[in-house]
Design brief:
There is one protein chain. It contains 10 helices and 2 strands; from the N terminus they run H-E-E-H-H-H-H-H-H-H-H-H. By secondary structure, it is an all-alpha fold. It starts with a helix and ends with a helix. A two-stranded antiparallel ribbon has the order 1-2. Helix content is 77%, strand content 3%.
């Protein structure tokens, strides 16, 4: 996380003359823009609808994967990141393989998402356990918050990081039991609800908390200087 503008973009923030701001346009960009939201919502929705109608994994996977391929082609046509398109194609191929392999089931289409959420959650949790919460470095990059590990802001930044850990843990806590129960339609619905909409809410909450922490720290510094 060495590029402040890249970090800001991922958090749904937009650079302004006074620093970074959160608005509806930047928040939408933070969750991938209209195309990114469609990529997050429509394949899982299509999967759920097709499976509910046909009860056939191959049709549901084909519908969702076909739609995802169209989104990848759209990114290529718009000359967006080729790396992102390749990663997307590999993810689709893996999800389709897991669902359609011998002994596989329709719900296996969502398995890669479990590993992704577990990896992000684990990385954030480790940063808390080693007393280097990642949100502290985010605050340092975006707001210039220095020496936060030795200040009163440390505990608050640790708490913000824990909120992110809880977000990824909540996804797993809801979706893994649905997977084990083979509740495919509910699993797909939870994937949609806990996807882009929930992530947008998390970005907004993170911005509010980090801005408050940085503002309080600056207020203390101004008081000390006086």
């Amino acid at each position: 996380m060495s590029n402040p503008e890249d970090v800001a973009r991922r958090l749904g923030l937009e650079k302004s003359g006074t620093g970074y701001d959160l608005n509806s346009k930047s928040l939408l960009a933070g969750i991938g823009g209209p195309l990114g939201v469609a990529e997050a919502v429509l394949p899982a929705t299509t999967f759920s609808i097709v499976f509910a109608i046909t009860s056939e994994a191959i049709y549901a996977v084909s519908g969702a994967a076909g739609l995802s391929v169209l989104f990848i082609l759209a990114r290529l046509v718009r000359r967006q990141s080729l790396q992102q398109a390749i990663i997307g194609a590999l993810a689709i191929a893996l999800a389709a393989f897991l669902a359609l392999r011998d002994g596989g089931q329709a719900a296996d289409y969502f398995l890669p998402g479990f590993f992704t959420n577990a990896a992000y959650g684990a990385a954030l949790l480790v940063s808390v356990l080693i007393r280097r919460p990642l949100m502290g470095y985010v605050a340092q990059l975006l707001f210039g918050l220095q020496r936060w590990r030795e200040s009163a802001e440390y505990k608050r930044l640790r708490l913000v990081t824990i909120v992110w850990v809880c977000f990824f843990a909540a996804r797993l806590a809801v979706q893994v039991p649905l997977y084990l129960a083979n509740e495919v339609e509910l699993l797909a619905a939870s994937r949609v609800i806990m996807g882009a909409p929930a992530y947008a809410g998390l970005l907004a909450l993170t911005w509010i908390l980090l801005k408050k922490i940085a503002g309080d720290a600056q207020g203390k510094l101004d008081t000390e200087i006086k």
